[in-house]
TrEMBL record:
GO terms for molecular function: protein-N(PI)-phosphohistidine-sugar phosphotransferase activity. Keywords: Repeat, Transcription, Transcription regulation. This is Transcription antiterminator. It comes from the Bacteria. SUPFAM superfamilies: PTS-regulatory domain, PRD, Winged helix' DNA-binding domain. Gene3D superfamilies: PRD domain. CDD domains: PTS_IIB_bgl_like. Pfam families: HTH_11, PRD. Residues 197-306, 310-418 form the PRD domain. Residues 423-513 form the PTS EIIB type-2 domain. GO terms for biological process: phosphoenolpyruvate-dependent sugar phosphotransferase system; regulation of DNA-templated transcription.
Length: 564
């Protein structure tokens, strides 16, 4: 069997998502690979496909678009990936080795690393050198050591190690590669000391705890972040258990967690630990319970009934001053000030705990927000630097600023547009309250006034799907399935997203108008055409023209004059 690597699978997944032909040049730009590499990986994919499936080829001046049979075969190829048919990249080998060294209770040797990654001794040594080099660039002060008695291990402050592994796992799971995840999921449970926490029953139990945690907290944690937390929790617990700590070191860590034990998240973590012990007799110590509470405090919330608590009165006052200063030094205007302040308090509570305990929260939309909302981003960044950063004694990076920009952007005053047909349009977005509001404001700029009826999460939408009258669903997810028309867009609308919205509205408006025009066309044509059958045929041809892509594209470019 031909071995497919990460780049091969990236190309395979990319071409499977195509709905229109795309050239090799365009694909190479999108994937950041040369055309030669694209053709090379395309050849490997074709060699892996069944003999009765036609090879994937790029048609001159058109590009690549998979047939139905090719899509079925490619999906089977993706589903069948395992550790024997996938070759890890160097980056993936380094990630796997790092996780192994961080969580296993066995002595790590060169031979075990060779067996783990299926590469030569020299390659393992080169990878270990690369790990050391990467660690010098990280802010966590984690160091890789090796001794004859202990093998390879990380030396650092225990919380620094947790922060580093959390950051590493965020990279692994936020940009998932199915081939690598398959290897990871197969190999990790076999590491010494990891079998119990990675058992299928405990993994399933943790996945089911989202609802109970939210009930205990009186908060709704961001959907993606709570799923991520429960997915990586076994890794973080084992990373802590991997270290041998003196009693004084344990006491120091507990002292650092003193602030956490006063919060409701600590009690929710205690309940989770009690359930884990009751069902599986897996006991968590005080540090591990505090670690779970720290994560619960650090993750973004979509809903929080405690935002008006006196505990956060000073924070609210600081945010009030930030908003006042933002409005004073900019030309922006906002709606629903109280809602904005409440959402900023909810976000900032988690932000301060993240800053206190070094838990990173990367925003995948930062580059898009910085580019599309340049002025808004710059204003938020400047104002935050001499208000919030100075008052809270923190340093906000671009990811932090982009989250604030999302909340501010979602509260900006809307200047409505008119002149389009009224429609029932619903937005579906799982990226959190802030992004939902920003998406709503963006769509308002391009859609008919009052046409957006609601913004749902996927779960909320499916709960009311049967009772809705829907003309269009706009979703930021590519997994949403419904019987209504769906447009998939980025949370920060791109030029292509806007064109898709305009095309949909133009097409369906003209389609409706064409249907209303049919009787009038027939009456008009009957003056010049005697046969009723010929009249209907001519009217149908004209209606087809109204609904054609060529006609719509011509209208978008500037009008009917281009037809002549």
């Amino acid at each position: 069997m031909v071995l497919l690597d990460k780049s091969s699978y990236e190309l395979l997944r990319y071409v499977m998502r195509l709905t229109n032909p795309e050239t090799v040049m365009s694909i190479s730009r999108a994937l950041g690979q040369s055309r030669r590499k694209i053709y090379y990986h395309l050849e490997k994919i074709n060699d892996s496909l069944p003999s009765d499936v036609e090879p994937i080829v790029s048609i001159p001046r058109e590009g690549i678009l998979l047939s139905d049979s090719q899509k079925v075969a490619c999906q089977l190829l993706l589903d069948s990936v395992d550790s024997y048919s996938y070759v890890m990249s160097m980056e993936e080998r380094i990630q796997l080795m790092t996780i192994y060294i961080a969580i296993t209770s066995e002595r790590v040797t060169i031979e075990k690393l060779m067996d783990l990654t299926d590469v030569s001794r020299n390659t393992v040594l080169n990878d270990l050198g690369e790990i050391r080099a990467k660690l010098t660039l990280e802010p966590f002060q984690v160091y890789l050591y090796a001794t004859k008695s202990e093998g390879y291990f990380f030396k650092c402050h225990p919380l620094n190690k947790i922060q580093y592994i959390h950051s590493l796992l965020y990279d692994v799971f936020s940009h998932p590669n199915e081939g690598f995840l398959t290897i990871l999921n197969k190999k990790v449970p076999r590491f010494e000391g990891c079998e119990r926490l990675f058992s299928a029953d405990i993994v399933a139990f943790l996945a089911e705890q989202v609802t109970q945690l939210e009930i205990d907290l009186g908060k709704k944690i961001n959907h993606y972040e709570i799923e991520f937390m429960l997915k990586v929790l076994p890794y973080l617990l084992l990373s802590y258990r991997n270290m041998v700590l003196e009693a004084t070191e344990q006491a120091e860590i507990l002292q650092e967690f003193a602030l956490i034990r006063k919060r409701i998240e600590y009690h929710a973590a205690q309940n989770l630990a009690a359930s884990l012990f009751e069902q599986f007799e897996v006991a968590l110590d005080e540090i591990e319970i505090s670690l779970i509470a720290m994560l619960l405090l650090s993750y973004r919330k979509d809903k929080d009934i405690h935002t008006n608590s006196q505990d956060f009165a000073e924070m609210k006052e600081g945010l009030e001053r930030f908003v006042d200063e933002f409005l004073r030094c900019s030309a922006f205007e906002i709606d629903n000030r109280e809602t904005l302040i409440r959402n900023l308090v909810m976000h900032s509570k988690a932000l301060l705990f993240r800053k206190t305990y070094g838990i990173l929260s990367k925003n995948p939309l930062t580059s898009q927000i910085r580019q599309k909302y340049k002025d808004l981003f710059a204003t938020v960044k400047v104002v935050a630097s001499y208000t919030l950063e100075a008052e809270w004694l923190i340093q906000m990076n671009d990811d932090d600023i982009s989250y604030f920009t999302v909340h501010i952007g979602g509260a900006l005053k809307h200047r409505p547009i008119n002149g389009k047909t009224f429609r029932n349009i619903y937005l579906v977005c799982d990226e959190g309250v802030g992004v939902q509001k920003l998406l709503y404001k963006q769509c308002q700029a391009y859609l008919p006034t009052d046409s957006i009826k609601a913004v749902f999460t996927t779960e909320q939408f499916h709960s009311v799907e049967d009772i809705l009258e829907v003309d269009l669903l706009i979703s930021t997810s590519d997994t949403l399935r419904a019987s209504f028309p769906i447009l998939q867009v980025s949370p920060v609308l791109t030029y292509e997203d806007v064109m898709k919205l305009n095309y949909f509205l133009t097409y369906h408006t003209m389609k409706d108008n064409a249907e209303q025009l049919q009787p009038q066309l027939q009456r008009l044509l009957s003056r010049y055409i005697s046969k009723e059958e010929d009249v209907r045929e001519a009217a149908d041809k004209i209606q087809e023209l109204f609904q054609s892509d060529f006609f719509l594209a011509t209208v978008e470019k500037g009008g009917l004059k281009d037809l002549y």
